[in-house]
Amino acid sequence: MTAATDAGVRLSRPAVGLPTPPERIVHLGLGAFHRAHQAWYTARASNAAEWGIVAFTGRSRDLVDRLSPQDGLFTLVERAADGDRFDLIPSIVRVEAGDDVPAFVAAVADPQVAILTLTITEAGYRLAPGGSPDLDDPAVASDVDLLHRALTGVAPDDTTNGARPSTALGRVLLALDARRRAGAGPIALVSCDNLPDNGGLVRRALTDLAGRISPDLAEWLGESVSVVSTSIDRITPAIDAHVESHAVLEATGWLDDAPVVTEPFSDWVLSGKFPAGRPDWESAGARFVDEIAPWENRKLWMLNGAHTVLATLGQTRGHTVVSTAIDDQLCRDLVEALWDDDARQLPDFDLADYRAALLERFRNPRIEHRLAQIALDSTTKARLRIVPVALGERAAGRDATGCAAAIAAWMLGVRAGTAPMPDGIEPAAIVDLDASARKALIGALDRRLAEDVGFAPHVADAITALETS
């Protein structure tokens, strides 16, 4: 029976007349990012009726309580500069709390399930600086011991069934071992986190941990688990759920306690095999490629690199959001100069359309992307987003002036306090941004650039130009 009130009609599958697709995908890390990307692409696939998602949260029950009464349905609001578009997304068919380990294990062990996707954030992987599992992390060390005892039979049988790993990868390994024991067949594991080589990172971490836990599991992982790398690009800002629920009600007549707001632009690139099948994501606009790195670099260097420039320089010029900073001609010129360097390091792409799309996205005033938030951890971000291009340009015998100007903007932000101070550098030492201060700051990003005597003058010239503009 439809739940009708004076305010509207509560979302549910009976209310909208939608069937429930079979549970074929399990997701860990349910949030707005997943719902604006994987859930949206799955709902738009030509064979969407064959692919339902069982979604597990991180640890909070908030989304369980909001989405379960709606049968997993939610509204995706595409927020363009000239208005909103409202789409009902039916691909999530069941929502569970992430700490419900038995439910997660049972879902992954189901032979009908073909794919396990992850959005657990960089911190959720609990890796050491070199990329291996951080065995100094008490939670990681505890899970390795727990799983070793549970999965190798050292512990009693009831402990095997009752194991409760606290880390995300620990829960994934427990679930994969249950799938192995059940003879449920191969599975694809897809990391959708914003990390370079995310699939390789997950594969190496799981292989390392499995080798410490169970030889049988380690062997099965190599034979039966395909790890897929992805690059995802869609800005999905934090929202006031109450305000957006009211907007959905006004536009559609549906009561939705869990809407998601995102930009119209979307891009999803995947590389890897799906041994048990997958949705026809290509029909929804996804791309499958043999080599993911160029696509990752395009996004990291151009979108994220420009964000770092706008966050550091924009704040020193009084801006608070991306949409106003990009319309500041000085900021815009610096971004374009950086993109010129990027383009030379991405020779296989025709970037004209992508650059134009980035500018349109940045200028959207209805997607509020705050510069102070983007500027957090800007030293690490500059290392990943700007330094590799600078090194590539210098190795090719070019000046890398766009990168030099981006680094100069970062230095001005650090001095102004709108970007964090790198470790080991005192604020008093960089007040004048003299030669020694510039070398120290470049060294905080990359030792090779700091030792490149031909690069430093370009940074100095850019600082002078920015300070006098």
UniProtKB/TrEMBL annotation:
Family annotation (InterPro entries): 6-PGluconate_DH-like_C_sf, 6PGD_dom2, Mannitol_DH, Mannitol_DH/Oxidoreductase, Mannitol_DH_C, Mannitol_DH_N, NAD(P)-bd_dom_sf
Keyword Oxidoreductase included in the entry's annotation: yes
Catalyzed reactions: D-mannitol 1-phosphate + NAD(+) = beta-D-fructose 6-phosphate + NADH + H(+)
Gene3D superfamilies: N-(1-d-carboxylethyl)-l-norvaline Dehydrogenase, domain 2, NAD(P)-binding Rossmann-like Domain
Keywords: Oxidoreductase
Taxonomic superkingdom: Bacteria
Pfam families, per the entry: Mannitol_dh, Mannitol_dh_C
EC number(s) reported in the record: 1.1.1.57
The keyword Oxidoreductase is annotated on this UniProt entry: yes
Domain called Mannitol dehydrogenase N-terminal: residue spans: 23-282
GO-annotated molecular function: fructuronate reductase activity; mannitol-1-phosphate 5-dehydrogenase activity
UniProt name for this protein: Fructuronate reductase
Originating species: Agromyces terreus
